């Protein structure tokens, strides 16, 4: 139905390293609403504002999850390229929002994000200029997934023991 939500997964892209440190969901919401108003006028803003919200924000990674109604997600997505800056604590940070995925549930967006991050890490590994960089990235990867790996190997041992 038109009332069901759509989730738009974006990343904040900025050359200014201070930008990500100061990202707040309120600032992202205001910047997106401002862009919708500039591109689609009062009508578009009213359509998108009905259930628009910033559902998730990770300032460290620059990941943003926006929610809107299904019947207005195209208006929202078409206005996102016009977000040019985020304002926080009376500071303006030039940036843009890169739309990564549009999904019907938060879970589908999470699954997409996991795959997207894996592809990004593989590209990082392929672009390493020396063996030291490669070892550093591999070490970081292993430290991030160590608990998951242990629980998976523990499950396999339990399966082997019962057969």
Automatic annotation (TrEMBL):
MF terms in GO: ribonuclease P RNA binding
Provide the alphabetized UniProt keywords: Nucleus, rRNA processing, tRNA processing
Per UniProt, subcellular location reads as:
Nucleus, Nucleolus
Example of a GO biological process term: rRNA processing
Main subcellular localisation: nucleus
Q: Superkingdom of the source?
A: Eukaryota
State what this protein does.
Answer: Component of ribonuclease P, a protein complex that generates mature tRNA molecules by cleaving their 5'-ends. Also a component of the MRP ribonuclease complex, which cleaves pre-rRNA sequences.
Q: Which family does it belong to?
A: Belongs to the eukaryotic/archaeal RNase P protein component 2 family.
- Annotated protein name in UniProt: Ribonuclease P/MRP protein subunit POP5
Organism annotation? Balaeniceps rex (Shoebill)
